[in-house]
């Protein structure tokens, strides 16, 4: 069989791309090795930039993001004994939207199904071939065990950091930029009411904690832990005590309840350049990973595919592949801004294992200058709510 664009990865990046190009009459096939259920049940971040919200609404994916999401006009930065509000609306006239990535995925999968998009979940043996030829090939076995070969005009790798596409670019044709961090996040879901109206990014002597939310009755929280932390060692009581100690240092009290999910999230920064190899284009986590602080990962993936959809339409319309270089040129500027933002939020708020008292006080000095400065706070507000479209 054939299609115009073969898309590896049916997460938000792959599905949004498929949706956007379908609006211009370009058909695609999307495959993912995970089942729809697996993707729906993997907890991810929960904050959308205002342009991500706009993209979902204006392209007809979902108005549920407005109905079921929560507008947050700011965040709390808590350190050295007190909380300080960063007022996004006053500083940059924008807000962030609390809406879980799993719901973004459900909305996109529903939209593709409603529009008759070809999306295959639960496939196996995915591989991509002939990347620099005239007709690249997408090969996979579907959920019923039937093998498929799909010839395409373009292939898109939206298959995340552990997918096959990134590595199918020959080593001599790519550069990889990588950074590790000596900590991770312990993430929980708890059946409790919100502890505060907005998110709290909490610096403390015992390490970082983030008090986020999901609904009126379900909350999402994270605390800095070792990369090899074992969730089995953490009873509900021990988790609440650790979280409460960290935020209590800055004057907050958490509302507690049964913990329904416990997972450890790795931290790393990664970029692969270029984002194009022949007729293969990389998007989202297949091309780059950010540490979770600041919730840039999903937003960056959506920004990638918004640019990619425009460039795919242009290149296929004019049958000129050279035009595709514009994708990486446009996307990488935002990628590196987001890399810096995520690195900066991370290193400003987390405690290094070997941190000296000087290191902790210096971080408090950085946070104090940030909240005391309109320029500093505005920089944070711009990055958090999302830089303008490039
Ligand atoms: C969430 C995750 C983040 O990394 C962040 O910066 C804010 C919120 C969340 O899952 O709610």
TrEMBL record:
Signal peptide: none
Single GO molecular function: FAD binding
Ranges of residues in domain FAD-binding: 2-341
Gene3D superfamilies referenced in this protein's UniProt entry, alphabetically: D-Amino Acid Oxidase, subunit A, domain 2, FAD/NAD(P)-binding domain
Classification via Pfam families: FAD_binding_3 (PF01494)
Key words, A-Z: Monooxygenase, Oxidoreductase
Domain of life the protein comes from: Bacteria
Protein name: p-hydroxybenzoate 3-monooxygenase
Protein's organism: Nocardioides aurantiacus
